[in-house]
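tokens incoming
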């Protein structure tokens, strides 16, 4: 079975996971909306992350900060000066490219070993390489590029009513990461929540980057959601903690259905890390379009808090009551993309199974093998026959009992086999059928039981209606 992005994108749209944004107006390139099932999946991912790293952690607390911040934040953090990508235009067809990605894509296609990432290269090195290798424009095939220039990725906006949209006092930025608001609120959290080192501040929220080449479905978009933790610690603990975080994060991916064996761990070598980082791991996943980053886990030393202390003029030191020391904490940052996690979960879950029926007829079953916790619908409920009033009544009653506990779906149309297939395609782990046995019509001992059909094995078993809620809760939480 070949897992292609075409199949995944088509299924995602057809079944209500992800639609192209503002499609009725011809769309807006590379914007995406989560549909009725997509939003459930997304909520499940965010819930699992929050539960593991906030609810169940004795060390971490959460925040939910504003997207717009005082513009001085971005001066101090270095984003205004340096958060840019190397941009070049094709002079023939006027298409724009990221020079680093052009080189990486060319190297991939030509099995050329770059000896590492292009991240640490200068503009001149990139330009020379593109000329030496005669790398051509992916759109028109010509080799005639402008010089490389730096393009800031932050989205600019105007805050408040002003007659001049370039008024510097009215200029604001949509945050390109959630992390900086955590650093800005670090002191308030310290003062209001009685946390002690080591502790983490976690946040899930939207970020915006004016990407030069958004692509690969939701993988690289201009508006996306991040799940970030800034874990503050003593300087001597940073290197140990970055390894511990790597383990915690791999466990998380395992739990949500991206097995750790499918994650490539890149220990980013010296010279390719940000200058302030003493250690960085990139976690990469084998997407159908190539091995690409899911998350970065970086030991960022005291760089961020020091920048904000300097920029704001406010003391951001930590006072250790036991040792009587005052110092700026160091930080380890696991920074994950929510949309990339979702995409990895869908890619991992997608399967096509060849089946042969009783008459020897071949068929293909499309199934999303989500771990039950991530499945948008936990259980589907069917009356075997929609004309049978008693079956319908019982099925509706089961629906009502389960609804406060999990997302369920009632379906009475079509043959039961077709109903199973529809649920397979959206990854529902269990289908519950109220049939004649439930009514005690064929075998009195089965009265009050239902058929449960398992998505993966397609095996069926009978469970008493009164045990159903607990049976399901044990399997879908
Ligand atoms: P890339 O090299 O792919 O642009 P990055 O190294 O710039 O990513 P970070 O700044 O480390 O990314 O951001 C942390 C995480 O946020 C990434 O690992 C990714 O999961 C997510 N992310 C970043 N940019 C995007 C985007 N344009 N679309 C979707 N998710 C993104």
């Amino acid at each position: 079975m070949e897992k292609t992005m075409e199949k995944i994108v088509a299924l995602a749209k057809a079944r209500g996971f992800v639609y192209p944004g503002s499609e009725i107006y011809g769309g807006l390139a590379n914007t995406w909306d989560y549909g009725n099932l997509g939003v459930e999946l997304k909520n499940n991912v965010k819930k699992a992350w929050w539960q593991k790293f906030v609810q169940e952690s004795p060390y971490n607390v959460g925040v939910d900060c504003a997207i717009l911040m005082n513009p001085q934040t971005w001066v101090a953090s270095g984003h205004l000066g340096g958060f840019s990508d190397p941009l070049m235009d094709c002079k023939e067809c006027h298409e724009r490219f990221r020079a680093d990605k052009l080189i990486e894509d060319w190297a991939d296609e030509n099995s050329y070993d770059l000896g590492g990432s292009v991240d640490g290269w200068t503009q001149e090195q990139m330009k020379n390489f593109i000329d030496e290798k005669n790398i051509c424009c992916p759109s028109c095939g010509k080799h005639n590029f402008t010089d490389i220039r730096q393009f800031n990725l932050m989205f600019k906006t105007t805050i408040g009513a002003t007659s001049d949209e370039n008024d510097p006092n009215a200029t604001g930025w949509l945050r390109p990461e959630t992390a900086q608001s955590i650093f800005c609120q670090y002191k308030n959290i310290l003062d209001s929540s009685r946390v002690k080192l080591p502790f983490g501040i976690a946040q899930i929220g939207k970020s915006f980057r004016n990407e030069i080449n958004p692509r690969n479905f939701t993988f690289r978009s201009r508006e996306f959601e991040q799940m970030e933790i800034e874990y503050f610690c003593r300087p001597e603990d940073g290197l140990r903690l970055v390894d511990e975080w790597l383990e915690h994060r791999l466990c998380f991916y395992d739990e949500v259905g991206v097995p750790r064996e499918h994650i490539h761990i890149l220990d980013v070598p010296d010279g390719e890390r940000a200058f302030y980082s003493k250690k960085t791991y990139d976690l990469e996943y084998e997407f159908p379009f190539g091995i690409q980053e899911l998350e970065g886990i970086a030991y960022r030393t005291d760089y961020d808090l020091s920048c904000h202390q300097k920029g704001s003029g406010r003391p951001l030191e930590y006072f250790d009551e036991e040792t009587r020391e005052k110092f700026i904490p160091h930080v380890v940052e696991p920074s994950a993309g929510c949309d990339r996690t979702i995409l990895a979960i869908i890619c991992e879950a997608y399967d096509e199974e060849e089946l042969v029926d009783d008459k020897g007829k071949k068929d293909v079953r499309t199934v999303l093998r989500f771990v039950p916790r991530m499945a948008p619908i936990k259980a589907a409920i069917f009356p075997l026959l929609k004309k049978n009033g008693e079956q319908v009544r019982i099925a509706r009653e089961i629906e009502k009992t389960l609804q406060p506990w999990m997302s369920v779906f009632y379906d009475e149309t079509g043959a039961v086999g077709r109903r199973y297939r529809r649920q397979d395609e959206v990854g529902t782990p269990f289908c519950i059928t109220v049939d004649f046995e439930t009514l005690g019509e064929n075998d009195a001992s089965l009265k009050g039981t239902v058929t449960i059909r398992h998505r993966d094995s397609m095996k069926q078993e009978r469970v008493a209606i009164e045990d159903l809620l607990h049976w399901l809760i044990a399997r879908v939480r």
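note: The pocket of adenosine-5'-triphosphate is lined by residues 177, 209, 211, 220-221, 224, 226, 293-296, 335-337, 339-340 (CB under 6 Å).
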